Amino acid sequence: MQDLVIRRPDDWHLHLRDGDMLRGVIADTSRHFARAIIMPNLVPPVVTSADAAAYRERIVAAIPAGDRFEPLMTLYLTAGTSPDDVEAGHKSGLVKAVKLYPAGATTNSHSGVRNIDEAMPVLERMAKIGLPLCVHGEVTSSDVDIFDREAVFIETVLDPLRKRLPELKLTMEHVTTKDGVDYIKTSKANLAGSITTHHLIINRNAILVGGIKPHYYCLPVAKRENHRLALRAAATSGDARFFLGTDSAPHVDPLKECACGCAGIYTSINTMSCLAHVFEEENALDKLEAFASLNGPAWYGVPANDETITLRKQVDAVSYPAKIDTGAGPVTVFDPMFPLHWAVV
Ligand SMILES: NC(=O)N[C@@H](CC(=O)O)C(=O)O
Ligand SMILES: [Zn+2]
Ligand SMILES: [Zn+2]
């Protein structure tokens, strides 16, 4: 038996959804995590500070009694977003970041940004007040191969934006490529990246070998093995520019297991066990706290959590359900394809 005590982690990229789904999934996050950046891609999206305040109340009402959990709210950037509303939301303490979805890039992104020019007044205001922009970093043009969309985004959108507005704080969400890792490492300030649990574990074979596996499909799609290895090296390095954002993204099974399945992998329930396994494999258990509990707070300018959690390596495999039942329907849990022995006690 081996124990690892770390500060309580936070999740810097989480989809909680709404209604029955929200009520069905929130306990899997609030059990282990103190805070999470809540993604705003609801239908309709969380666009204004008033939307975010109302959504926050629905989330707080769904937190199980006895759990301490703080949702950190974000706004969904659209062509109509008002700089004054963003600033007021930030000043009130409600809005912690704004999310950029290139229109059409991912789940519920059709109201997103078509041309970065249309968002410049908001981005300039954010740079001025120090509010971070979280970016889904993929181009959407049909002539760019889906496996290249992140690398092309860095070159054609992200890098030009950083040159145009160097004072803007940017989180490159769910980095999936060596290109992304290398790009973040060139930055001295104002750029960081979140990394998901599943991209540390699967490469694209998980989706495609031996039959099509919809529960390993997410966006950005998992890439080749060399990219997974680059993500692992970054996450386990202790480098403060990389931190955990699970991107746990529940969809009910019928919407995943069909002719045009949704993108998203549900990992909230077993993320900490998966991460301990990965960090142990990389001989980097001493870096897990930085990745899951320290680097994110430092980036977002909030204190790390005072409480701790204990991870215990046990002989028997940790048991967790293959699916959870939510009021919205069943949601399949991420299967890392190996037994997990690190339990959160
Ligand atoms: N990651 C995903 O595959 N899906 C996310 C959207 C996103 O984060 O891009 C979702 O909302 O389902
Ligand atoms: Zn995304
Ligand atoms: Zn996401």
From TrEMBL:
Zn(2+) 2 binds at K99, H136, H174. Binds 2 Zn(2+) ions per subunit. GO terms for biological process: 'de novo' pyrimidine nucleobase biosynthetic process; 'de novo' UMP biosynthetic process. It catalyses: (S)-dihydroorotate + H2O = N-carbamoyl-L-aspartate + H(+). The modification N6-carboxylysine is found at K99. GO terms for cellular component: cytosol. The keyword Metal-binding applies. Its cofactor is Zn(2+). It is an enzyme of class 3 (hydrolase). The active site is at D247. Zn(2+) 1 binds at H13, H15, K99, D247. PROSITE patterns: DIHYDROOROTASE_1, DIHYDROOROTASE_2. One of its GO terms (molecular function) is zinc ion binding. The keyword Hydrolase applies. Catalyzes the reversible cyclization of carbamoyl aspartate to dihydroorotate. Homodimer. This is Dihydroorotase. It comes from Ensifer oleiphilus. The lineage of its organism: Bacteria, Pseudomonadati, Pseudomonadota, Alphaproteobacteria, Hyphomicrobiales.
